[in-house]
Write a sequence for this structure.
């Protein structure tokens, strides 16, 4: 069957499922079975088609509806973290890869620029920060900035600032993704030049073992916030089978859920930066925290969504 015939034959059914959602568990189950059959057919004969991506998203949405109608004691909060957010990330993993790619390229450019221009680090990080860090290096405490304020105050300030940066990265996606790309690029250049600053002084390993204790979660969350912003921007640029307005509404909902899902990550990163990073930890302990943080990010945002999606699909 040609793709156009397949779409024409099933469009009314798909629109009914999407525009008139049912709360009846039996009807939801019946619709879900029909939809997964259509998705299996589309994946077999039109694997790279827009209709396949559309059906994949609609199936995930139906699955969330089934989860919400299960008669158990799980709250909406638990359902969101256990099912809804991971399935949403399965749909967004291409944009997550794009966000990570932009950030890594910017890091490399920041590193190379700092290596070839002695004034670049001051331009990016500011004279005050550079002078303070140089003074700390002379005192034998290159990362003494993390000991400069009260722990509780530092925790609140850092956490709120990180959440602000994440939501700004998400909101800038309204500018057809360009605002989000600019935010990712700026933060990547800043990180690259920052790390070169310590490398130039023979302190790269010290800085990694200190900064990435909290930075693993913090930087990962910024990249994921970039994914949220790109989701919004791409919904405007590439509406697919939806009208541009409907696509934009879907993009806003999806991007906002991703951004909200990052709040606990930033709270954990703020706690580590305020209470743990300032400590003089053995390299084994610092490395373990970094590896555990990285493993969690990879598992929850990449591996678990793929595994969950396979359980949803026949």
């Amino acid at each position: 069957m040609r793709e156009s015939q397949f779409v024409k034959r099933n469009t009314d059914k798909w629109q009914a499922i999407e525009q008139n959602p049912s709360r009846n568990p039996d009807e939801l189950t019946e619709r879900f079975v029909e939809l997964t059959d259509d998705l299996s057919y589309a994946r077999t004969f039109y694997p790279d088609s827009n209709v396949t991506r559309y059906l994949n998203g609609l199936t995930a949405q139906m699955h969330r509806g089934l989860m919400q109608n299960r008669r158990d004691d799980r709250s909406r909060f638990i359902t969101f973290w256990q099912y809804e957010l991971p399935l949403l990330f399965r749909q967004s993993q291409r944009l997550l890869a794009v966000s990570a790619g932009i950030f890594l390229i910017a890091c490399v450019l920041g590193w190379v620029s700092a290596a070839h221009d002695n004034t670049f680090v001051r331009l990016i990080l500011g004279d005050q920060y550079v002078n303070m860090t140089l003074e700390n290096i002379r005192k034998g405490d290159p990362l003494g900035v993390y000991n400069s304020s009260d722990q509780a105050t530092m925790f609140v300030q850092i956490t709120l600032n990180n959440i602000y940066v994440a939501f700004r990265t998400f909101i800038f996606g309204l500018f057809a993704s360009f605002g989000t790309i600019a935010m990712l690029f700026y933060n990547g250049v800043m990180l690259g030049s920052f790390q070169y600053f310590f490398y130039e002084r023979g302190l790269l390993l010290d800085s990694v073992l200190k900064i990435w204790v909290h930075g693993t979660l913090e930087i990962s969350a910024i990249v994921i916030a970039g994914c949220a912003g790109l989701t919004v921007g791409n919904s405007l640029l590439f509406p697919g089978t939806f009208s541009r307005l409907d696509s934009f509404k879907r993009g806003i909902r999806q991007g906002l859920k991703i951004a909200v899902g990052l709040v606990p990550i930033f709270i954990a990163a703020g706690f580590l930066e305020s209470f743990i990073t300032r400590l003089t930890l053995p390299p084994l302990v610092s490395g373990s925290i970094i590896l555990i943080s990285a493993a969690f990010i990879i598992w929850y945002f990449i591996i678990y969504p793929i595994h969950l999606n396979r359980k949803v699909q026949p």
Remarks:
- Residues 93-312 form one domain.
- The chain has a mean pLDDT of 84.
- The first helix runs from residue 3 to 19.
